Amino acid sequence: MDRKGFSRRQFLQMMASSTAAAIAASAAPLTTLAQDSMSYSEAPMLADLVASGDLPPVGERIPVNPRVVTPPEEIGQYGGTLRRAFKGISDRWGPTKLNEEMAIEWDIPDPDTVNLVANYISEWVQNDDASEFTFTLREGLKWSDGHPFTTADVQFWYDWYYLGELQSKPPTITLGGEDMELEVVDELTWTVRFPVPNPLLPLVIAKITLGSWAGPTMAAPAHYLSQYIPDLTEDQSLIDDAMAENGVETWQQLFGDTNGQGPIAGWWFNPEVPIINAWRSLNHPSNDPWLAERNPYYHAVDPEGNQLPYIDGMTHAWFDDQAVFDLWVAQGEIDAHIRHVASSNFTFYKENEEAGDYTVLLWRAASTNAFFPNVSHKDPVLREIFNDARFREALSISIDREEMNALIYEGLFEPRQASPVSGSPNYDPEFETRWVEYDVDRANALLDEMGLTERNADGIRLRPDGEPLSFTILFQSGFAERGDEVTLVEQYWEALGLQVNQELVERTLYQERCNNGDVDVGVWTADRNSVVMADVSRYTGEQADGPWAPLYGAWWADSPRAQEEPPEGHPIREVWSLWEQAQSEPDEATRNALFKQMLDIHKEHPYMIGTVGENPVPFIKKNNVGNIQGGHIWDDTLRSPGGVASVTWFFRS
Fold first, then answer.
1. One-character DSSP codes across 408-474
2. Are 216 and 138 in contact (CB under 8 A)?
3. DSSP labels for 314-370?
């Protein structure tokens, strides 16, 4: 394998410069404004609509001061449809991350640089202690149907989503359980206030939108969605018809039962809902393929005044079997893809580059493969066992990570614990190596020390209640390529006298079972480990797909899923307390110290059992597709791959 340009040392340098820049940027808002004298151009498909009188000229569709996005390589060409693939509705993040629009976004012009920039807002400012933030929309900003986007849309979101019944309140803007206050200043400007400092808010917006999936931030199209709220419309029949057509029982379910992605409000479920994203949905994602086309009112241009995006549209074909997706890649039927491109299949992708007329670029994952014993388990006996740090240590040190890396991943991964990755401001080499050394004798001794010495006739250790110590490793179809790793871990743990099963399910069912706490040991990646403060949900237990404490995490975040309050004195309470102090601490040094204390709780007795990570991630790029670089970081926090200016991708003619 040619790893030129992707040595571990270079990766560390890349990560260090990137994450440090991102943290620094939170205190230094950036934006790029179009020149007053700039003239604007548009895609031929839109120029035809202008000529026929079906669309206003481009200068009337974009803001007075559009955002200027500099392509990473060159000014692109208009046209073409990007061919991609996904595993259906549950695989929503593939299309979504390419198409998100937050008020503040990551700007990643090259592998060594990460900034925060104003996106569809022209600027944001904050007071000295970061308890008050003021945002200003770009003048002339419009929704995809041409309707003006104003602070009326912000007020609508605040009244009906944040304070109302249409969305659970994000804890990142409901500090200490107190509501965020909103003041609409004028048609373009609004201010939010918090009871305590909230210095990480810009990072949080860039990571999790603080609105519906795919954005926008703190806003929703009031002129359209108000039709489906009984108190705001006189036409109840429209609501009744929509409920009947979509098979829901309440009008709130049209909005998505607190997640903002119901059949009416969801950006890719409903082609008619106005958006501000680069591409808009043309059909329901249950169709094969799912289709999207450019938004004629998109708010950004390139440095020469060409309205973005360059690409007219995209398609996502359905697949269930990884082998089918790999065949599409080899046959040249995928134009640009990193999601589901398995590192373990790197050799296959390289061997088919010439035949498929594509190039395999390499990115680097800011994550670790991990197993998640559920310490909030509904079975009180398993709960007690999983909460015992000796048991988790035994599970961890019985895994031969070097063997796993060699047998399954061709030596391309790094054996490590689930923890912040190299180069992160929070990287800790002691945490990275905690409980990583392979030691089966110590693992057995720890289980014996717990009193798990009795065995049945099959050699299976018995629980304190006399039942076999049995549990199931649950993983989902999106991680089917990790089946060999799951099987190997199953064998390691069975060698300790544990009865271990594995179950592969569709992603939606996996998520449902994790949300309900009906999981013994889950399988996911310990991602979000580059700019960790931007999203700490892996460490607080909020993120249920890595289900080390799904019921406890939901209780703390007051999430609309199964909850249970943890017992007094449980370490997770100290995790939450330290994070609540850190996120509202205006002094950077004090904030970092508090955050380190929080991470040290995980370091002392890890809840997420990492195996291998920081791996190269193959990115398939057709040779006629421009403005896609190798060498970037792959991490959910950075919204990969959308953070690398996907609106500037283009087809060379």
1. HHTT-SEE--SSPPTTSTT--HHHHTTT-S--HHHHHHHHHHTT---B-TTSPBBPTTSSB-EEEEE
2. no
3. EEEEE-S-HHHHHHHHHTT--SEE-TT--GGGHHHHHHTHHHHTEEEEEEEES-EEE
Q: What are phi and psi of 645, to 5 degrees?
A: 60, 55
10 Å Cβ neighbour count for 116? 27
Of 117, 147, 573, 163, nearest to 376 (Cα)? 573
Report helix, strand or coil for 612: strand
Contact 634, 366 (CB under 8 A): yes
Residues of the chain with pLDDT under 50: 1-33
Backbone angles phi, psi at 622, to 5 degrees: -60, 150
Helix or strand holding residue 526 (H, E): strand 521-526
For a pLDDT cut of 70, what percent of the chain falls above it? 94
Rounded distance between C-alpha atoms, residue 294 and residue 309, angstroms: 7
Sequence-distant (6+) residues with CB within 8 A of 557 are 171, 540, 542
Question: Residue 529 and residue 533: Cα distance in Å, rounded?
Answer: 9
Cβ(486)–Cβ(476) below 8 Å: no
3-state DSSP: the chain helix, strand, coil percent, rounded to 5?
35, 20, 45
Domains in the chain (CATH in brackets) are 368-613 (3.10.105.10)
Phi and psi dihedrals of 167, rounded to 5?
Answer: -160, 140
DSSP SS3 for 373: strand
CA 101, chain centre distance (Å): 13
Contact between 225 and 219 under an 8 Å Cβ cutoff? The reply is no
**b/e map of 550-561 (b: 16 or more CB within 10 Å)?**
bbbbbbbbebeb
Q: What is the pLDDT of residue 258?
A: 54
* Contact status, residue 601 vs residue 577, Cβ threshold 8 Å: no
- Mind listing the pLDDT tens digit for each residue in 333-380? 999 999 999 888 899 999 999 999 999 999 999 999 999 999 999 999
Helix, strand, or coil here: 287?
Answer: coil
Per-residue tokens: 517: 């706490």
* pLDDT (tens digit per residue) in 543-592: 999 999 999 999 998 888 899 999 999 999 999 999 999 999 999 999 99
- Chain segment 422-461, per-residue pLDDT in tens: 888 899 999 999 999 999 999 999 999 999 999 999 999 9
Chain centroid offset of residue 557 CA: 18
Residue closest to 526 by CA, chosen among 421, 384, 380, 408: 421
Pairing mode of beta strands 470-476, 499-505: parallel
**Which among 16, 3, 8, 645 has a CA at the least distance from the CA of 300?**
645
